[in-house]
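Friendly challenge for the regulars: who can give me the structure tokens for this chain first? No prize, just bragging rights.
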Amino acid sequence: MFDKEKLKEDTMHGSVSFPIAKYEWTGDSDYDVNPHWHQETELLYLEKGIFTLKINLESYEITAPAFVIINSGEIHSIALRHGQKESAIVFSLNMLSFEYFDALQYKLIHPLLTKEIYFPRLITPNDSIWKRLQSLYENIFHTVGQEEIPAYLKSKIYLYELLGCLYENDYFHRHELTKNDTYKIESMKSIFLFIHHNYQRRITLSELASTAGMNEQYFCRYFKKMTGKTVTQYLNDLRIDKAAAALIETDKKVIDIAILCGYDNIGYFIKRFTQAKGLSPSKYRTVNQSDRSII
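First reply, four minutes later:
Bragging rights claimed.
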């Protein structure tokens, strides 16, 4: 059996004290969120557009408006396109857990944490709880990010209300994966973890195939089927995203960032980065660091 830590996202959502965060996409460009997973639950609000998502082994094309819920540990990706609008709240279920083991902990929180029950995948305006859920989401989104106790308390209250709304309307469900499905998911986690730990150097196809326990030819087909991308595409996207973050968050030279992200040819790095982001690395840094200073 493969190690469960195999594709885990590095990002901390929120903070240790406030393990909840919000994100927003306003559709200014195209961006593919690569397959990844995290321990937190993610509540996606698709507000405008038609979205293509992949969650574990299933592909979805969803027309907004809709809520999509990503359960803890699920591998997921999304293709974001110009003109779309979406946002997300990502939170740790542990923040809703009680030290005192009461009926709520026993009937709902503990089963969610141990994956005995799951959140519903999709909620649309056709669902009777739509307006209530929409209102609660807006309340949570408004309070998240205010790291004061009253705001954090409100966020928790709204999340409990959301759980209550889902529970009383019988939206939670049990879902048993087949052994084959579980194997596929865990094998992808092992592959992704290897890539995330080694993207700074040259990675060979034989290394990846060996990590997955497959021959190289089958591995290439398997990876493309599971992610929608070739290994090269996925690795380049990851390296460019890491470089983009480093350009904004550090003062390292462009050539140093290129090397740290696995590129030994600065010209090729600049070409790939410009194709992906629409700006040269230097221009991308200038624009985005300027935006941060305004905020």
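The first strand starts at residue 20 and ends at 25. The beta strands are 20-25, 31-36, 41-48, 50-55, 58-63, 66-70, 76-80, 85-91, 122-123. Your move, everyone else.
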